[in-house]
UniProtKB/TrEMBL annotation:
<keyword id="KW-0964">Secreted</keyword>
<dbReference type="Pfam" id="PF01357">
    <property type="entry name" value="Expansin_C"/>
</dbReference>
<dbReference type="InterPro" id="IPR036749">
    <property type="entry name" value="Expansin_CBD_sf"/>
</dbReference>
<dbReference type="InterPro" id="IPR007117">
    <property type="entry name" value="Expansin_CBD"/>
</dbReference>
<feature type="domain" description="Expansin-like CBD">
    <location>
        <begin position="1"/>
        <end position="75"/>
    </location>
</feature>
<dbReference type="GO" id="GO:0005576">
    <property type="term" value="C:extracellular region"/>
</dbReference>
<protein>
    <recommendedName>
        <fullName>Expansin-like CBD domain-containing protein</fullName>
    </recommendedName>
</protein>
Length: 82
C-alpha cells in the first residue's frame, strides 16, 4: 500500500488495517518511504492512519471485497492542516 499526499500533521507513525468482519486492527510494516505492507489473505477494510504526533484518522470502505494488488483505491481523508 502506498499512501500519497499526506499533509497537515507530519509523517505517518503507524498504519493499521481492519479485518472485514471484525473490530480488531492489524498493524502494517513500513517497507520504504510511503509504502506500507501487510501479508494477509483476509478481506480487509480501509486503513487507520496515525501521524507522528499521534493523531489518527480512518479511511473507511476504501478496500473493496475483490481488491487486487497493484490497483489504486482512493480515499479523500486527510489530516487537517495546521
Amino acid at each position: 500500500m502506498a499512501i500519497e499526499y499526506e499533509s497537515g500533521d507530519g509523517d505517518l507513525g503507524a498504519v493499521e488495517l481492519q479485518m472485514q468482519c471484525g473490530t480488531a486492527w492489524a498493524p502494517m510494516e513500513r517497507s520504504w518511504g510511503a509504502v506500507w505492507r501487510y501479508q494477509s489473505g483476509s478481506s480487509l477494510q480501509g486503513p487507520r492512519l496515525t501521524s507522528g504526533s499521534g493523531n489518527t484518522l480512518v479511511a473507511s470502505n476504501v478496500i473493496p471485497a475483490g481488491w487486487q494488488p497493484g490497483n489504486t483505491y482512493r480515499s479523500v481523508v486527510n489530516f487537517g492542516t495546521n
